[in-house]
């Protein structure tokens, strides 16, 4: 049903602290799309106290990648649940490796467009250390932030290469408003093509 829905599907990629969540909030406010963050889905699962949630918590604390099968199951379930109310999907934090992107295409459908927020490591580190004071996230500490960045760099280039035709690179080191202005142009153009 998802494949036939014709709804826009936008993947939001970028390193930890590149501004994915911040951008998604702005897109939701203007376009009313359904925002699904795989990090949030996993944190909900951890909160639920399930065994799989506990396994995920240990991996997230180490800045690694939770097994794809588990993440994709959570993501697909959420998309199906939201489908009847949705104007389009913002998929935040997925894919995190090339194979995740390919599995999404096989099981769910193709992304309409991919937004990749680029930012320097030092800027991402400073932002996340700033957020650490209030986020309460067990992975917002200096040691885990470095590991999250390592995981990102180990996996990101092959994703961007594999999906280059659909990927729009956006400078993430500008104000959130400036990032959003660039993204508005991209979204308006995909909505017009429909
Ligand atoms: P996830 O929750 O996705 O974390 P992340 O990718 O590390 O990204 P963040 O949410 O920390 O940052 P963000 O890019 O959304 O930036 P934000 O807008 O908050 O994933 C957590 C973990 O879950 C992973 O490490 C992994 O273990 C697991 N996981 C998740 N998805 C998975 C998957 N697909 N497969 C396997 N495992 C998975 O901004 C950060 C800060 O910067 C904020 O304080 C914000 O106010 C500020 N800021 C944002 N934009 C700007 C700007 N333009 N200028 C100045 N400040 C800004």
Rg result: 16 Å
Instruction: Tell me roughly what share of residues is in helical segments.
Output: 55-70%
**How many strand elements?**
5
Low-confidence segments: none
Number of helices: 9
Mean pLDDT: 96
The 3D shape can be described as: globular
Structure report:
By secondary structure, the chain is an alpha/beta fold. Helix content is 60%, strand content 13%. It is built from 9 helices and 5 strands. It has helices spanning 2-5, 20-31, 38-48, 51-61, 68-82, 98-107, 121-135, 142-162, 176-193, and strands spanning 9-14, 34-37, 89-92, 113-118, 167-171. It has a 5-stranded parallel beta sheet with strand order 2-3-1-4-5, with helices on both faces. Helix 2 (20-31) packs across helix 9. The longest helix is centred in the last third of the chain and has 21 residues, at 142-162. The chain is globular and about 45 Å long. The mean pLDDT is 96. The structure holds BIS(adenosine)-5'-pentaphosphate. Residues 14, 16-22, 37-39, 42, 59-60, 63-66, 71, 93-94, 96, 100, 127, 130-131, 139, 148, 175-176, 179 line the site of BIS(adenosine)-5'-pentaphosphate.
């Amino acid at each position: 049903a998802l494949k036939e829905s014709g709804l826009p599907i936008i993947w939001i990629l970028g390193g930890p602290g590149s501004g994915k969540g911040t951008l998604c909030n702005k897109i939701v406010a203007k376009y009313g799309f359904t925002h699904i963050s795989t990090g949030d889905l996993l944190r909900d699962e951890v909160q639920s106290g399930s065994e799989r949630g506990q396994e995920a918590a240990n991996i997230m604390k180490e800045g690694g990648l939770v097994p794809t099968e588990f993440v994709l199951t959570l993501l697909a379930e959420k998309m199906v649940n939201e489908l009847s109310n949705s104007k389009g999907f913002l998929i935040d934090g997925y894919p995190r490796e090339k194979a995740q992107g390919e599995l999404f295409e096989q099981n769910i459908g193709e992304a309409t467009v991919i937004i990749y927020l680029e930012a320097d490591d030092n800027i991402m580190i400073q932002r996340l250390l700033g957020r650490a004071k209030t986020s309460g996230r067990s992975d917002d500490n200096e040691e885990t932030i470095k590991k999250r960045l390592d995981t990102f760099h180990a996996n990101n280039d092959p994703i961007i290469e594999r999906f280059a035709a659909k990927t729009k690179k956006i400078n993430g080191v500008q104000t959130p408003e400036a990032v959003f202005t660039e993204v508005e142009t991209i979204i308006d153009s995909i909505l017009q093509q429909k």
